[in-house]
């Protein structure tokens, strides 16, 4: 984990400075948070490393194909907003770190949740729990719910569907037009789900037996959670491979400068 999350500063009394960001800026700052927590030895990050992380095909939605120039422009915008800072890197290569703890006014677990939402957008709370848990421990969905409630009270998280099974949430850093479009899409989805639920609850619908027979098979929810954990581990392995390739390229570049 990043050093800041290992020893988080006390909650700031200052008003958080967060605001809506473009899709590219959300991706870039999300990558900085993710790598700080999952690959701390590669953090702070160079422009090329951020570019590689932004263009990963795993744990990203939508997939992007950003150029180093686009990433540099994004980092410059984020610096002006106070969300990112440039630090002195080894040699002549500039490196960047995030300042989102203060910028958003969040703690380390809240930031892990926000990073996953920035990287993937709207998702069910079950999916979000599995993905955020690779950065900070979140035991289960029950443990995630109060975190989401706190983030919602800060205006950082928005629920797109009604509470209950399959509830979908997202971050609030979309532009106004993006957020309105997203709410409209899920409003229609939620309405359709409600109609389906009412139909399933009709008197003619089959009802479960009063005492279902014991089954040695694990509950479906437990199996789904295990699958999510396996997927998260595979994603993290792929990210480590990406980081290794990036570090190798940067080392070769550094050797070239010394030649």
**Helices and strands: which structural class?**
mainly alpha
- CATH fold type of one domain: Arc Repressor Mutant, subunit A
Q: Given the C-alpha coordinates, what overall shape results?
A: globular
Top CATH class of one domain: Mainly Alpha
**What does the main sheet amount to?**
3 strands, antiparallel
The DSSP helix count reads 10
Average pLDDT metric:
81
Spell out the helices and strands N to C. Answer: HHHHEEHHEHHEEHH
Strand segment tally: 5
Q: Round the Cα radius of gyration to an integer and report it.
A: 21 Å
Helix content: 55-70%
Amino- and carboxy-terminal Cα gap: 35 Å
Task: Name the descriptors.
259 residues, mainly alpha, Arc Repressor Mutant, subunit A, two-stranded antiparallel sheet, 10 helices, 56% helix, disordered N terminus
In short:
The chain has 259 residues and is mainly α. The protein has helices spanning 3-6, 23-38, 47-54, 68-81, 100-104, 108-120, 125-132, 141-153, 176-200, 220-258; strands spanning 84-87, 95-98, 123-124, 157-159, 168-171.
């Amino acid at each position: 984990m990043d050093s800041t999350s290992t020893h988080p500063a006390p909650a700031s009394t200052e008003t958080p400075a967060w605001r809506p960001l473009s899709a590219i800026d959300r991706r870039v700052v999300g990558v900085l948070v993710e790598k700080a927590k999952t690959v701390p030895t590669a953090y702070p990050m160079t422009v090329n490393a951020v570019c590689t992380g932004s263009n990963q095909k795993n744990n990203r939605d939508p997939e992007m194909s950003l150029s180093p120039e686009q990433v540099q422009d994004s980092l410059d915008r984020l610096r002006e907003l106070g969300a990112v800072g440039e630090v002195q890197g080894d040699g002549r290569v500039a490196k960047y770190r995030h300042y989102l703890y203060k910028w958003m006014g969040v703690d380390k677990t809240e930031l892990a949740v926000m990073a996953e939402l920035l990287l993937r957008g709207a998702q069910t709370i079950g999916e979000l729990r599995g993905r955020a848990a690779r950065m900070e421990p979140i035991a289960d969905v029950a443990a995630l719910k109060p975190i989401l409630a706190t983030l919602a009270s800060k205006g950082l998280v928005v629920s797109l569907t009604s509470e209950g099974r399959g509830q979908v949430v997202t971050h609030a850093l979309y532009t106004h037009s993006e957020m309105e479009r997203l709410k409209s899409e899920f409003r229609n989805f939620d309405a359709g789900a409600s109609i389906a639920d009412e139909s399933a609850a009709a008197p003619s619908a089959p009802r479960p037996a009063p005492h279902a027979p014991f089954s040695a098979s694990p509950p479906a929810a437990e199996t789904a959670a295990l699958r999510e954990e396996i997927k998260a581990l595979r994603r993290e392995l792929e990210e480590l491979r990406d980081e290794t390739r990036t570090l190798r390229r940067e080392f070769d570049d550094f050797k070239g400068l010394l030649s």
